[in-house]
Here is the input.
Amino acid sequence: MTETALPILIENLAVTYCDHRVLDGLSLSVAAGSVIALLGGNGAGKSTTLSTLLGFVKAQSGIVSVCGIDPGSASDEARRQIAYLPENVALYEHLTAVENAQYLLALSGGKQGRAAIVEAFAAAGLQERAWDQRLGAFSKGMRQKVAIAVALLREVPVLLLDEPTSGLDPRATADFNALVLAVRARGTAVLMVTHDLLSAADIADRICFLEAGRIVEDVAAQGEDRFDVRALHARFAVSTQRHAA
Here is the structure.
């Protein structure tokens, strides 16, 4: 990353599928050491935004930059700057947590020694008795801790999260939010796609609402200017219902 490049920069982005404009003039940036939550109804363009940053979808117009790299023309280089946590974490059930981490790190780069891995597991809150267990019996929350530990070991500047608290109970959600805050404290730029406004309000610096492929509201989630959660929740619910209708 160049000294002046933002970890994530999107300007006036347009993406079209089958004559349908999915992203329509989207502009968004995420600075180092900050968390931005992107909310919106189904079909608003949240997943397409992540796919464009990962280089899986190419834009028709606009600017997309990951640490100064265009993922549309240099997708491999851009993805080396990113740790991506999808809604359903893809791990190998027949391997142990340590073996999964070693394999994923061998593919993507990062510290592969057992000592470094178990240290990251401990930081992620994965209990010691689970380190050498196969993942077949792991809950979603435990799988996420493995994935977050791998992200920590890769030491990349960007973390993308897709519905990370979906299906988690309140305790697991609180644990996950604490992990995200720890990642942010390391200077990582975090972009989180979510439907969970209350969870986003706990950890995000700003919350952006996406509707019909563009940001329609951008509010502060922390500090003196933070929004009224209940009022915003009501507006978000109405907007989501209108978009789904």
